[in-house]
Amino acid sequence: MTIIESTVTVNKPIADVYAFLADLNNHQQLMPENIYNWSSTTDEARFTVQNMAKLALKVSSRVENKEIVILPSEQAPFAIELKWDLADNGNNTTTAKHIISADLNMMMKMLASGPLQKLADHQTEKLKSI
Fold this sequence. Notes:
This is SRPBCC family protein. There is one protein chain. The protein has helices spanning 14-22, 106-129, and strands spanning 2-10, 35-40, 44-49, 54-63, 67-72, 80-88, 94-102. By secondary structure, it is an alpha+beta fold. The chain has one domain (2-23, 59-129): Alpha-D-Glucose-1,6-Bisphosphate, Chain A, domain 4 (2-Layer Sandwich). The termini are far apart.
């Protein structure tokens, strides 16, 4: 299992950060430019990654003000889990950790781990600025 992490401190209370991340409609704002054909509801999102694959994701679990776990809702090119862990820093700031766990063989790891790390970093940076 390949684990990719990116952590950021957001200058907002944990309840605000959780409410934003718990709704997949908001995740479009966190995506890089190479994502298109986006459609979403509160619990599901579908999109295409340019030159790669179509993905359909759904929220599999939510723990209020703590964690959101997102899994593929249809067959994906490889097993993947997207998770947001949130921690309240007390002073109206929140630490958000984005963890991508992917079951990649050696060839896929060479091809996909760089783009997945870029995605995680991009999403945490966008979260900080929203």
